[in-house]
Amino acid sequence: MRLPKALHALWIVLAAAVVAATLLVASPAKAATLNEVTNFGANPGNLRMYLYVPDRVAARPGLLVAVHYCTGSGPAFYSGTEFARLADQYGFIVVYPSVTASDGCFDVASTATLTHNGGGDSLSIVSMTRYVQQNFNADPNRTFVTGVSSGAMMTNVLLGAYPDVFRAGAAFAGVPFGCFAGPSKWNSQCAQGQLTRTPQQWGDLVRNAYPGYSGSRPRVQLWHGTNDEILSYVNFGEAIKQWTNVHGVSQTPTSTDSPQSGWTRTRYGSGQVEAISMANTPHNLPVQASAAIAFFGLNSGGPTNPPTSNPPTGGPTTPPPGPGGCTAVFRVTSSWQQGYVAAVRVTAGSAGINGWRVGLPLPAGSTIVNSWNGTFSGSGSGTQVSNVSYNGRLAAGVATEFGFQANGAAPNPTLTCTAL
Fold first, then answer.
1. What is the CATH number of domain 326-419?
2. Which residue positions does the secretion signal occupy (predicted)?
């Protein structure tokens, strides 16, 4: 059967996404590895399960399910995102479901997957989740889900069909629960933003997925680029309508701010729904892993049991920061004739910090064309970068990263870091 042109386009865009993400995010330096788990329970979707357990985990670890995009895989999502590094830092466990279907996309359309205990890919992922809760003492009250594109759609499916399993979710460039429902895995009407409903209608789709459920509903964080060419930006507004209705809160935001240039964040109710609109951003949006982890609350606490093996040696090292200060280390992750991508790792000193500012002297003529996880100001030798709302407060020895893409030759600047 010939697949829709839009689905082929989605494959191309997201194949590029994993390459870009892998370039932008260095693999965590650690002894722990990604392992496949078989026989994890009911698996009607015939998915594969990959599990990342840091060498040090909290006594009662949180659990994050991280769901990949079309044509991706669990191992690719592990390598191309920051979730495993953040798991090392905060001591939670990560499950990476992996599609085996030929199209590489999760089933977010069938009646089975959209129904509580109905089967399909959603039940397979819930089986993985319960396996980790039972075998690794993961905390059911700190169990969350996130995903990108097809994974974002599955995030909404899991939040709707299994509100008893997941406490919150973060969906990057997805569609509302039930928007893709139908006989085919691809729904052009939804993808193109032609499927709109009233808040009540959207909310009823979620409530009917688990009739009789009367417990609390998971909190929801939504991310979408205004220039999304694969899954229309219209779906962002429809998802807000859906989840505010499910939570019984007003569609009028209780707060609006801009945590980073080009972002508009709206919050609804007492924080049950949070939505971030990213201006001039296509479907291949930068995944804000740290912000999602902060929304879940997985950035509190940390690992408590001792390491099971010695950390690896070799490779670049970060100089130890002084008490109460911070250090910043620059590296080029990708370069070409006309430009480059770079990342800067900021590490707090022995007293911890409440904010940071990095002096980033760039050559004259360098032009930053994209950035993430930092607030940029100035230009050339006067370029400075400050923390954003979710990555300024760092405990002693804890690190965070920001990055950017720029035109011009890749530099080797000497950085300064000031604790705020």
1. 2.60.40.290
2. 1-31
Which is nearest to 24 in space by CA: 372, 398, 326? 372
Distances (CA, A) of 167 to 160, 205, 218, 297: 11, 19, 5, 11
Alpha-carbon distance 228 to 57, whole Å? 37
For residues 85-98, one letter each, b for 16 or more C-beta atoms within 10 angstroms of the residue's C-beta and e for the rest, the string is bbbbbbbbbbbbbb
pLDDT at residue 415, rounded to an integer: 95
Rounded to a whole number of angstroms, the distance between the first and last alpha carbons of the chain is 58
Domain locations in the chain as residue ranges:
5-296, 326-419
Instruction: Give the DSSP letter string of 122-144.
Output: HHHHHHHHHHHHHHS---GGGEE
366 as an active site residue: the answer is no
Q: Is 323 exposed, middle or buried (0-12, 13-18, 19+ CB in 10 A)?
A: exposed
pLDDT digits (tens, 9 = 90+) for 214-242: 999 999 999 999 999 999 999 999 999 99
Task: Answer whether 135's CB lies under 8 Å from 39's CB.
Answer: no
Q: Encoding tokens for residue 13?
A: 């865009």
Interval 39-71: pLDDT, tens: 999 999 999 999 999 999 988 999 999 999 999
| CA–CA separation, 269 and 277 (whole Å) | 18
Contacts of 26 (CB under 8 A, 6+ apart): 331, 333, 343
Q: How many whole angstroms separate alpha carbon 79 and alpha carbon 29?
A: 12
- Fold equal for 5-296 and 326-419: no
Catalytic residue, candidates 149, 277, 366, 371: 149
CATH code of the domain made up of 5-296: 3.40.50.1820
CB-based contacts of 234-237 (< 8 A; 24+ apart in sequence): 234/193, 234/194, 234/196, 235/174, 235/175, 235/176, 235/179, 235/190, 235/193, 236/275, 236/277
Global pTM? 0.70
- Among 35-39, 366-370, 373-377, the range with the most confident prediction by mean pLDDT is 35-39
Q: Is the pLDDT of residue 336 over 70?
A: no
* Cβ-based neighbour number of residue 26 at 10 Å: 16
The CB density around residue 361, as the number of other CB atoms within 10 Å, is: 16
Q: What percent of the chain has pLDDT over 90?
A: 68
For residue 156, which of 193, 201, 106 has the smallest C-alpha distance?
106
